Amino acid sequence: MRQIGEINISPIGLGTVKFGRNTNVKYPHPFDLPSLKDLRVFLDLAHALGVNFLDTAPAYGESENRLGQLIAKQRHDWIISTKVGEDYQGSSVFNFSSKHTRLSIEKSMKKLRTEYLDIVFIHCNDNDLENLRSTDVISSLRAMQEKGYVRYIGASTKTLAGGSYAIDNTDLVMVSNTSSQLPILEKAHTKKKPTIIKKPLQSGFSTNIHSSIKKALAHPSVASIIVGSINKAHLRANIKYATSL
Ligand SMILES: NC(=O)c1ccc[n+]([C@@H]2O[C@H](COP(=O)([O-])OP(=O)(O)OC[C@H]3O[C@@H](n4cnc5c(N)ncnc54)[C@H](OP(=O)(O)O)[C@@H]3O)[C@@H](O)[C@H]2O)c1
């Protein structure tokens, strides 16, 4: 287990885009959404293999709603991150206002059937620095954190300027596993802020899964890498490899 503040988190987390959305996604192959029954078996397997971290978002279609149905009775077994700022209504819509941030958190808690969220990331678009610096999203999240609805706040960023601002002003940052993001991992490490790696397998386009997992887990700032999957054999293989490192 690795640490995000007081949270113990598994080095491999589960990305749940494929739990709830199969339109306008950038995976190599089309797929049907799994049944709730199949997802229950999948989550039970993930838990048995030592995974305790689930990453979701309002922009992932039915993902939050389905996770809520699946884990309501085992809420304390899981660390859940969701996001604010992006909604998906056939296409992406962004809103980082205070009002939208509050409403988004309330909706996420209702869908996830929980009274608190472990981590909330700001779901930035290409203008991540503007999203973070020129809106009230960070102060709104801090207010929700003070009220106890959210344990840690972070941002999922794209640019070096956005990632750097997130490190200075939030608790953790989520970035892709590309060499261009190395300065963010380095700065986070220096500032003792954890990082999370998104899309560690290049959304399924990786030609060497082991090397992608090894590279994503390598930097000492990385608390967890969120691997998207709805395939039990892939999940088993990914965990087996990660635990052999
Ligand atoms: N914050 C953001 O802006 C943002 C953006 C993108 C993603 N994310 C988060 O990051 C998570 C992961 O990203 P992602 O789902 O785009 O990409 P990813 O984790 O890089 O790759 C997922 C793809 O790899 C396949 N895969 C997994 N294990 C495999 C294996 N052992 N062998 C072959 N293929 C394998 C999966 O297919 P199977 O289902 O067949 O295993 C899936 O299609 C998302 O679910 C989401 O939670 C965040």
How many E-type strands? 12
Q: CATH superfamily assignment?
A: NADP-dependent oxidoreductase domain
Estimated structural class: alpha/beta
CATH third-level topology: TIM Barrel
Q: Which small molecules are bound?
A: NADP nicotinamide-adenine-dinucleotide phosphate
User: What CATH architecture label applies?
Assistant: Alpha-Beta Barrel
Global mean pLDDT: 97
How would a textbook summarize the main sheet? 8 strands, parallel, barrel
The first-to-last residue Cα distance is 14 Å
What count of helical segments does DSSP give? 10
Domain NADP-dependent oxidoreductase: 11-207
InterPro entries: AKR2_Oxidoreductase, NAD(P)_OxRdtase_dom_sf, NADP_OxRdtase_dom
Pfam family, one: Aldo_ket_red
Protein name: Aldo/keto reductase
